[in-house]
Amino acid sequence: MKIIKIFIVSFAILIISSGAVAQPAIFENPLSPRIANYAIDVRLDTEEKRLYGNETLVWHNRSDDRIDELQFHLYLNAFRNNRSTLFEESGGELRGMGLDDDGWGFIEVTKIALADGIDLTDQMEFIQPDDDYINDKTVCRLPLARAILPGDSIIVNIDFFAKLPSPPIRTGHKEEFYFVGQWFPKIGVYTDDGWNTHQFHALTEFFADFGVYDIKITVPDDNIVGATGLEVNVIDNGDGTATHYYHAEDVHDFAWTASPEFVVFTDRSQDVDIRILMQPDRLNQVDRYMQATKASIEYLQDWIGDYPYPNLTVVDPRRGAFNAGGMEYPTLITSIGMYAMPDGIRFTESVIAHEFAHNYFYHLLASNEFEDEWLDEGFTSYAEGKMMEGIYGSDGNAADLFGIKFNISQISRFQYFAVPDLDSIAGRAYKYYSEGSEASISFSKASLMLQTLENYVGEETMNRILRTYFERWKFKHPKTRDFIDLANEISGQDLNWYFDQAIYGTSKLDYRVRYLFTRKVREDKGYDFTFDPYEKPSETDGDDDGEKVAENNDDIKEDTSSDSTVDETTETLYYSGVNLQRMGGFIFPVELEVVFEDGETIRETWDGKGKWKKFRYTRSSKLFSARIDPDNKVRLDVNYTNNSMSVEPQGYGIAKLSAKLLFWFQFMLEQPDLLTILPSLAPSPE
Amino acid sequence: MIFESVKTGFGQTWANKRLIAVFYLVNLILGLAIAIPIAGLVDSFVGKSMIRDSLAAGMDWNFLFEFLDINHKQLPGMGNLFFFIPLIFVLSILFLSGGAIGVFAGHEKYKPSEFWGNCGQYFGRFFRLALMSIPLLAILFSIRLLADGIERLFFGADPYENLAYWFGVAKIGLGIIGLLLYGLVLDYARIYMVINDEIKSRVALWRGLKFAVGNIGRTFSLALILFLTGLAVLFVYYHLSNLLSSSHVAIILLLVLFQQIYILWRVILRLTFYSGQVNFYKRINPGDTIYR
Lengths: 686, 292
What we know:
By secondary structure, chain A is an alpha+beta fold. Residues 1-21, 536-567 and 674-686 of chain A have low confidence and may be disordered. Helices cover 83% and strands 0% of the residues of chain B.
């Protein structure tokens, strides 16, 4: 059950003599340390696409250190010019889209002062903690004349104005649509190692402390607003603007959106109020949005734990604002939709599942996205796969159209193949080799790594690990080592051998069946131990591979010297062998299923440590096939095809596939002449 | 007149089964030229893996992704096949169409010497005609841009997504209409060339354009009838082939047989289209007689 008191102690009683609004309360007791607390008045100038803000920050020193400076993020400066770290790393593009010619954005701090009136504006100094790239102005430090003692607090007043980039790259505007994230001077996180601030990077997202936000957003009065937290009230200013007051508790960031075009839909799932802000030209998609949102809330609350906030807002970004899609903020997420997206393509659904999962894996388990990106993107991708399978089934949960079906987990695998071994999961993602490597490693490999872990420890244990991780670390900043320690503890096993390879290593995991044979057990040849030295030895079959393998085999399970002889009075016996090989550097214990022609099935295990392993059998039946990982548990294996082998090629699958290929090529040719070459000319719907 | 032309065309096609065989063989050989290398690559990749059997059940995406990943160096070479084989096919059909139109225009039975002679005689002219028609293709294909113009005129540069989508669909539709019209012009230009033994491509192109556009309703209707027939048979094929999903060898053989019957039907449809167009042209222009 939620500890929510909701709602918002009616604002009618709140007007006090000063005209201020008393702070409402969502939770009876704080759920988080509430280190960084903001009150911001911000006005949106829709003509200039600018924000004018006044911020009051109350920051608590929960460390044992005397802190003599503050550090802030000024992330809109990533869009100030083409010399920022963001532009250096990406060319100013996200998902292939860049800024318009006049779409530059920035943030200017016009005044920064302490509560006692001491103006520190001149003391501000830009720093570049990640790359020493002096043209980047996304992080600044503010030296303090008087240190903040452990347990003390500081109040800072900041005046700023900002211009929003266009079209949005994670944040910004497109025409009348605004998605405003990373928009205010946001203080860094003070850790055991001092200030942890990072520049705005192309690949990674953010990191911040929890707190309480009281944000008053003034926009044209015809605008519909959505934001992190709960809307306390809306005041019509009588000048064509309205001020929307939002209050959020125990969140670590605040984003908002505004547009006069939004069409609002509301519903409820379990104990969460849902608000969907749709674009008017995609209303045909609203049922998909709503159903996916409801299903995602139900799935994650049932699986991982309670979503503590009372509400969730889902934003449908405007056409042309694609890069505002697929973003996550506390209680506010954006999806990606298209007017003509067929129901069988569940892209919108998977984005909603993914972004809502981020409310757990980042907004509650507030890891550092710069340094441990997999803790949010990897876990979220893993959760997305589970959610899509749970909600839409295991056959075609990503796409099910015209008989073509595939799943999120298959997409993950394919994405992992792109750049599988250049970076480790534990690396800092903004330093990864490429955007492709980030997708491969932080998203896909991490997801496959968790799937493999689940299959190794069992679903029930994995669920206990996840639930304990959530309960123990929510509203905190878990690191990679914290999860590993917890997984070891809950599973009761030392899994470091796995995590060391999967998280800290770059080796690929690939086991294969290298060789199979089966043959009749041979008659005795050569000298016996009771030999007559004058008797000539019989000839040996030196060209038999199976014999050679058997001779060199250290792992023969049975005594072949006795088993490989034939007693004329008994049934025919067959000597069979399976040779396995580890192809990659990643060592993982694997199961082997060996099937004989009479149907006998044997399961073996191999610790996978050697480069190869041989299994030998003497049976009354011939060997039929061998299959590594028969239950498909090792999702990190990069090649399933070589996991199995039969003594003789089985089935007519290739024949059927060839027939199908031939037919479709013939069909393609047998179109009207011009249509034969049309596919390369044809446009697609916009 | 249209149905009569189709009926006569089908009768003429059916009466020239060796012509059907020639066109079918070209299709089969070129189809095999693409399918065999790809099937061979798949076969060598799969080896004795047990996945061999499961491939019969349908597309295994894990397998496909692995195949693409591990064989990515060979794939560009395979990709070239998708460019060159269709090109060879188009040229082959251009070559054979001279012979086929000759047979249909003369209301004759297939005779190898005449057929191949006509193929050789008209290929050069048809090729020149095809080259000369490229500007016409560009113009007709550009009528799709009308949709862009109307969209921009009425809805500006930033139309709602639903409008943009339907204009996109209209654009594709107009593009297809342009291409079909181009195809018709080219077809009737070739018929004009054969029937009148025309050498000059520009004259044939002009006459083809005049005929196709001058009888636009009927030339389109003829094409539409045969297109819809093809679509209906494709629909039947799709559902029947889905019934043959087993990987049993007899079922696979039956599937192959069924597929080839379908392709044979497509070949007959192509020839019926040629023949129907020739008949239609001759009914409209009874004065034109095939040059001897």
